[in-house]
Design brief:
It is a single chain. The protein has 329 residues and is α+β, with helices and mostly antiparallel strands. It has three domains: 35 residues, no CATH class; 66 residues, Ribosomal Protein S8, Chain: A, domain 1; 186 residues, Phosphate transport system protein phou homolog 2, domain 2 (Methane Monooxygenase Hydroxylase, Chain G, domain 1, Up-down Bundle). Helices cover 59% and strands 12% of the residues. The chain contains eleven helices and eight strands. Strand 3 and strand 4 form a beta hairpin. The longest helix is centred in the last third of the chain and has 33 residues.
């Protein structure tokens, strides 16, 4: 990390400012006329480029030699890292297949080909993304996934499970957008960014749990214990949505209720093991596992609510200076 000292100077009649080294601006491709975002984080002033010289930001080149699966993960990770121009050098057929498999999950991304490489461009402006709206949308999707899964258990309409799987794809899209936004804008409030990451990841993990359960029920299509499973999962549904909206609404009372109810909810899922369902032991094990996982994810979200709450009520204690200590003596 580079460090220099600068004297604050007057600019015109009313403004003051400091000068920045040209080499620093060249390093981050910022020139005269470009826009930067200035934030006060605690007692630190943070300056971050929004548009940069030449109109290009975060351009990287990556050489690939792995499988399509590995290439897919590289593309996703590069997107989440906040890169806007990603040059991929490798087998074009492999890169095409990899990008096609995730294109619909990476908002604002498109692929351009040249003779020697493939360029993935991302046109999403994270500064215009309201992260609370994204998290709220993820919560609404999870709510719909639970609704359709419970409806399947009550009606045996298999298409409801297909819709759960489709909603999980929408969840993935918002998940990647949210992580990219958090990565690029975390300098505004690093501690809040950690809490948002916990919530976003746990929402996505909960959706994946319902995705796995939907696939399991599509394979088995049980006729027994559907009502009992529905009742247990309905409780889990209520539990995690209470945690999510406690975070979004800063409702510390509901967050506390979620945390105090965690042990009961975990034991509640275990009761399915004693339902006496014949030939469903594997499926019930999956239901218990995924249900308890969602309970744990909900409790983590409630913990994030408390972290944010503590920051809002905590008041820094002034440490006496040497002069103040001497005067007291």
């Amino acid at each position: 990390m580079s460090s220099i000292y600068r004297r604050v100077i007057r600019i015109g009649e009313k403004s003051i400012g400091i000068t920045l080294p040209r080499r620093w601006l060249d390093t981050i491709n910022v020139g005269i006329g470009d826009v930067v975002e200035i934030n006060l984080v605690g007692k630190v002033i943070v300056i971050k480029p929004i548009t940069q010289a030449g109109g290009e930001t975060n351009e990287v080149s990556i050489s690939l030699s792995g499988t399509a699966d590995e290439t897919t993960r590289v593309i996703i990770a590069s997107y989440i890292e906040g890169y806007d121009n990603i040059e991929l050098i490798g087998q074009k057929d492999t890169i095409r297949r990899a990008f096609s498999s995730v294109e619909n999950k990476l908002p604002g991304s498109l692929m351009l080909e040249s003779d020697g490489s493939v360029l993935i461009k991302v046109a999403t402006s994270e500064s215009n993304v309201d992260l609370n709206e994204v998290i709220n949308s993820m919560a609404n999707i999870l709510n719909s996934m639970f609704d359709k899964f419970i409806d399947y258990l009550n009606t045996n309409i298999i298409n409801q499970l297909n819709e759960v799987l489709e909603l999980d794809n929408q969840m993935d899209k918002l998940y990647f957008l949210a992580l990219r936004t958090i990565k690029k804008l975390s300098f505004r409030d690093p501690k809040r960014a950690i809490d948002d990451t916990i919530v976003v990841k746990n929402l996505e993990h909960a959706a994946d749990a319902l995705d796995r359960l939907s696939n399991a029920f599509m394979r088995v299509q049980p006729t027994q214990c559907r009502r009992e499973i529905s009742e247990k999962l309905r409780d889990v549904w209520t539990y995690i949505m209470k945690a999510v909206y406690a975070y979004l609404d800063n409702n510390i009372g509901n967050a506390l209720r979620v945390l105090l109810d965690r042990e009961r909810m975990l034991n509640n899922m275990l009761e399915l093991a004693n339902m006496g369902c014949v030939n469903l032991s594997d499926l019930l094990t999956a239901v218990i596992h995924e249900g308890q996982l969602i309970v744990a994810l909900a409790a983590d979200i409630a913990e994030a609510s408390f972290s944010r709450h503590v920051r809002s009520i905590a008041k820094p204690i002034k440490v006496p200076t040497g002069g103040e200590l001497s005067s007291e003596e």
